[in-house]
TrEMBL record:
The entry's keywords: Cell membrane, Membrane, Transmembrane, Transmembrane helix
Ranges annotated as spanning the membrane: 12-31, 111-130, 136-153, 285-309
Matching Pfam families: T2SSF (PF00482)
Record-given protein name: Tight adherence protein C
Keyword Transmembrane recorded: yes
Topology within the bilayer: Multi-pass membrane protein
Length: 314
């Protein structure tokens, strides 16, 4: 009974917060007072076919990823997209990542990250207010920085995921190209060779090639499907590979030699990048040597001489 009385204020705060969030969602989703956009008002008069009911569209639609918060997050994410990184940039990076996420879903995740950053900034501001007595402007500044940092963090994670995937595809390309060259030299056609590679390998590049084969089964030509792979990945090595396959198919030139030459070029580029990275690491390794090892060496070299001089003058 005593514990219930002690937790009474905390439970009241939590219940009041939940009630306030629920009422805010109801007011936000209510159609009263929400003016339709200009595009919504003009669309029925400019569309060739009558618009189907939203109830029919929602019958086979996937469930909302964030439940009742999905409309609110989508609206806030759309406003955030107007301020930072347009839809084209996000769509481009999601395609390069090979992700099935929509731009709206990514924006909703970005809003969640911003909300978590805002809460973290509020907590830090309250701690500083309790410890140092800072004012409300400092707390508001920390909240704004936390929200901006959360949104930037989600964007940075997407960019890092794209960079890691492209590095993996670059590392896989020489092996895939040589296996394709062996299959083509053995007498298989380009489509059959790509199908064999996709069934034998399991990397990111193999998945992109498998997606290209799936497009060809839907009626798309092999050259167009490979061009789509080059456009999605954005890698120069893959673009050269698609160009070589296209020239070989259009002009009848030997494809195996082209693939082997491209694999050798990618390996040479990787070796050059590795040498450049090792050169930068070598310069970075001088920092602990100069800061820690060299002073200790000088001390060990000078200390015996100082001790001898001290004994001789003593």
């Amino acid at each position: 009974m005593t514990s219930l009385r002690a937790d009474g204020p905390l439970l009241a705060v939590v219940a009041g917060l939940a009630l306030g969030i629920g009422l805010a969602l109801i007011v936000y989703a209510a159609p009263i007072g929400r003016r339709p956009a200009l595009t919504d008002r003009l669309a029925p008069y400019l569309r060739d076919q009558p618009r189907a009911s939203r109830l029919l569209d929602a019958a086979g639609a996937a469930p909302a990823p964030f439940g009742v918060f999905t409309p609110v997050l989508n609206d806030i994410g759309a406003r955030l997209g107007r301020l930072y990184h347009g839809t084209a940039s996000i769509r481009r990076r999601l395609d390069r990542l090979g992700s099935d996420l929509s731009v709206e879903h990514f924006r909703a995740e970005q809003v969640i990250y911003a909300a978590l950053g805002l809460v973290a900034g509020l907590a830090a501001g309250l701690l500083l207010a309790a410890a140092r007595g800072v004012g409300a402007p400092v707390v508001a500044l920390l909240m704004a920085l936390g929200a901006a940092g959360g949104a930037l963090l989600r964007d940075h994670r997407l960019s890092r995921a794209v960079a890691r995937r492209e590095e993996a595809m670059t590392a896989e390309f020489p092996t895939v190209a040589e296996l394709l060259a062996l299959a083509v030299a053995a007498g298989e056609g380009p489509a059959a060779a790509i199908d064999r590679i996709t069934r034998s390998c399991g990397g990111e590049l193999s998945r992109e090639l498998a997606r290209a084969l799936a497009d060809t089964s839907n009626g798309v030509s092999l050259i167009a499907a490979l061009d789509a792979v080059a456009a999605r990945t954005g890698l120069s090595s893959v673009a050269r590979f698609v160009e070589g396959v296209t020239i070989a198919l259009e002009r009848g030139t030997p494809l195996a030699g082209v693939l082997r030459a491209q694999a050798a070029d990618v390996r040479e580029t990787a070796r050059r990048d590795l040498m450049e990275a090792s050169g930068r690491k070598e310069v970075g390794m001088l920092v602990p040597v100069v800061v820690f090892v060299l002073p200790i060496t000088v001390v060990f070299a000078i200390f015996p001489s100082l001790a001898v001089l001290d004994m001789s003058f003593g």
